Amino acid sequence: MACLPDHSNGLVEHVQPLSIYIPPTSQPPVAMWGRGVATRLQKLYPVNSITSRSLLLLLLALFYVQQCLAVPPLSPGSKTPECSCYRPTGNSEAVFLNHQFFDFRSLDNEPFASNLTTPAAIRNNQNEGIEPLTSPFFGTGFFGDYFTPGSWSKETSEVAPVSLVNSHQNLYLARDAPDSPVHLTLRTNRLPSFQSASALETTETAYMHASIHIRARISGSPGACAGMFTYLTDEQESDIEILTRDEESTVRATNQPGVDANGTVIPEASTEIAITRSGGNAVGSWTEWNDYQLNWLPGRSEWLINGMSKLNKTYGVPTQPSNIQIRMWSNGGSWPGNMTVGGQATLDIEWIDLVYNTSREAPGATCKTIANGTVRSIQVGTLLLGLVLCPFWAAMSLW
After folding, report:
1. Burial of 45 (0-12, 13-18, 19+ CB in 10 A)
2. Whose CA is closest to 22, among 66, 61, 83, 64?
């Protein structure tokens, strides 16, 4: 809504997810109505009319609401004076002081996106993760300031029978067709001797509560895990994960640790939730574009899909500053499954929307104006002020 980029490519009503705004070229219905009535009142009533003055004061309140609704879109990483805090979609009154939005669709006209090709799959002799970046977009500028592509490796273990090597060659920009919007792709593929994977990690390591909102789709061979999560340690981690061995409507919502010291599974750690399409009446699939959202809140985690709250969990909520990671991977273990040699899977992303606090923020920071899924608090507060002042204004006009 206010102060945030347009994910919907269209007008919205007053109550919408945080990630939608009303374009500045369009006025909300209440503002259009108020402007028209104000013009008529000025013609029908003299300027000292009690009724005219009272109504005009109320209309000024409506114009104030309109100003918070119809503001220009944010440039990535910027903040407008109208909004000093943000409240995400979901069952929470939590507010966040920072917002970052990464819209890969906006890269359509960039020179490096004019002739996109899919990088060749990693070969079995490319087992060091030293391949160069596939685009200058990943290493410089706004995106490079906030995300680092992973190139680290993991050896085999008792729970991970296949070694994992992250490669920059598995992170690339792509289009479905020449005239389709740009999206980000993370790829994993299985080689005879290892699993080639891809990872993105935030350069910020001190997130202290956040709302992670990603529009994504997943496809490919069974045996991969698409993960979007907060991470500090294996005990301080909160996940949205899609396993390509699962049913296409299944998403895993997990707070770690998932097993105790004896290796016994902790039942409350991980929960399967179902994808439903917008409106909630039809089962969806992770092979389609869906909006996935994780709200990491004090003492509680909340998972949403396509704007609908699916699960709240109080077990294992992270309590320490963390980073945020996006990964497409496998290790042949029991969680992702063992991908067949020659198989591959991809995670495509249209946009990433983050609102967050960090451990550096001063406790008790206050908000002047909150951008959220509703402007009800602004409307009520302003209109109540009008109701209080209107009788006073009317009385003054009798003198």
Report:
1. middle
2. 66
Distance CA 222, CA 160 (A): 16
How far is Cα 131 from Cα 197, in angstroms, rounded to an integer?
Answer: 12
pTM score over 0.85: no
Q: What are phi and psi of 293, to 5 degrees?
A: -140, 130
- In angstroms, rounded to a whole number, what is the distance separating the alpha carbons of residues 346 and 218? 6
Determine the pLDDT at residue 79: 42
Sign of CA dihedral 296, 255, 362, 202: negative
List phi, psi (to 5°) of 74.
Answer: -70, 140
State in Å, rounded, how far the first CA of the chain is from the last one. 44
pLDDT tens per residue across span 319-356: 999 999 999 999 999 999 999 999 999 999 999 999 99
Q: How far apart are CA 329 and CA 335, in angstroms?
A: 11
Say if CB 274 and CB 283 are below 8 A apart. Answer: yes
The sign of the torsion formed by the CA atoms of 138, 141, 142, 148 equals positive
Spacing of C-alpha 41 from chain mean position: 44
Give the pLDDT band (50/70/90) at residue 140.
confident
Residue 90: phi and psi, rounded to 5, are 130, 180
Distance CA 254, CA 313 (A): 9
